[in-house]
Write a structure and sequence with these properties.
It contains 7 helices and 15 strands. It is of the alpha/beta class. A 5-stranded parallel beta sheet has the order 2-1-3-4-5, with helices on both faces. Strands 10-9-8-12-11 form a 5-stranded antiparallel beta sheet. A 3-stranded antiparallel beta sheet has the order 13-14-15, with no helix packed on it.
Length: 238
C-alpha cells in the first residue's frame, strides 16, 4: 500500500527544524505539513488538523516535549529528537517510534522515519481492510464506515462527509482524504467532490446522481469516471 506520511515538527531551534525539513524532502513519501518553534502554537495546530507523525524536541524552554506529548488528547506516532540521550527511556515508555539524538545524520533520520512509515502503513492497511475512515471530529477520533458514506464535498479548509442521518464537517483537505480512501470504493469526480462508487444511482457525461443529490462531473475527471462506471456495468453484466 503506497502511502504519504503527513508530519509536523516541533523544536525551539530553527536550525534543527531546517535540517529536519531538508532530510524529509529526500523522502518522497514524507511530507512536513508544518514546523513550530513554539509548542503552544503546535498544540493549537494539532487541535484542528490530523497528522500521522510528530517529530518532537524534548528540551524546550517552556515545556518538556515528553510532557507535551503526554497531554495530547489524540496522539500521532512520535519520534523524539533531543541532544540529551538520558531522556530515551522515558521516550520509549511512551511507545515512541524512535529517538533521535542530535546531531544525527540523514541515514539515522531515514531509518527512524521508515519505522514510522511501517507502523502507520500497517494501521492504515488495517483500517482499509476493516472498511472505515478515521477522522478527527469534535476533539475525538471518529470511525465512519465506507458503506455509510454517500459522497464527500470540499468546503474551503474543511470537507463535509455526507452520511445518514447527518453529515460530518471535518477539518481535512480533499488531497488528504483522497489518499485515505480506497480507490476501488471511491472516485474523484470534481475538484470539490468524491463519491462512493456503489452509491451512484444514475449518471451521464456531466453529472452523477446519488439519491436526490446531483453532483457535477468536471471535464478533468470525465474520462476516468466513465471508465470506472463502464467497468462497474461490465462486472454487473449490464
Amino acid at each position: 500500500m503506497s502511502i504519504i506520511i503527513h508530519a509536523i515538527a516541533i523544536d525551539d531551534e530553527p536550525l534543527a527544524l531546517q535540517l529536519l525539513e531538508q532530510y524529509a524532502k529526500k523522502l518522497d513519501w514524507l511530507e512536513i505539513d508544518a514546523t513550530f518553534s513554539d509548542a503552544m502554537e503546535a498544540r493549537e495546530y494539532l487541535e484542528n488538523n490530523s497528522i500521522d507523525l510528530l517529530f518532537l524536541d524534548i528540551q524546550m524552554p517552556d515545556i518538556n516535549g515528553v510532557n507535551f506529548y503526554k497531554e495530547l488528547p489524540l496522539k500521532p506516532e512520535v519520534i523524539f529528537t533531543t541532544a540529551y540521550s538520558h531522556y530515551a527511556v522515558e521516550g520509549f515508555n511512551l511507545n515512541a517510534v524512535d529517538y533521535l539524538v542530535k546531531p544525527y545524520e540523514f541515514s539515522r533520520f531515514q531509518a527512524a522515519a521508515e519505522k514510522a512509515r511501517e507502523l502507520i502503513g500497517f494501521r492504515q492497511t488495517k483500517e482499509a481492510e476493516e472498511g472505515f475512515l478515521l477522522v478527527k471530529y469534535n476533539y475525538q477520533w471518529l470511525k465512519i464506515g465506507y458503506k455509510d458514506i454517500d459522497y464527500i464535498e470540499a468546503l474551503d479548509d474543511y470537507i463535509k462527509i455526507n452520511v445518514k442521518p447527518k453529515p460530518y464537517l471535518v477539518h481535512m483537505s480533499m488531497k488528504v482524504v483522497t489518499e485515505k480512501l480506497p480507490p476501488e470504493k471511491f472516485m474523484r469526480v470534481h475538484r470539490s467532490y468524491i463519491v462512493s462508487i456503489e452509491k451512484v444511482t444514475s449518471w451521464n457525461k456531466n453529472t452523477i446522481t446519488i439519491g436526490d443529490k446531483t453532483i457535477p462531473v468536471s471535464i478533468t475527471y470525465q474520462k476516468q469516471v466513465q471508465e470506472t462506471l463502464n467497468k462497474l456495468m461490465e462486472e454487473s453484466g449490464g
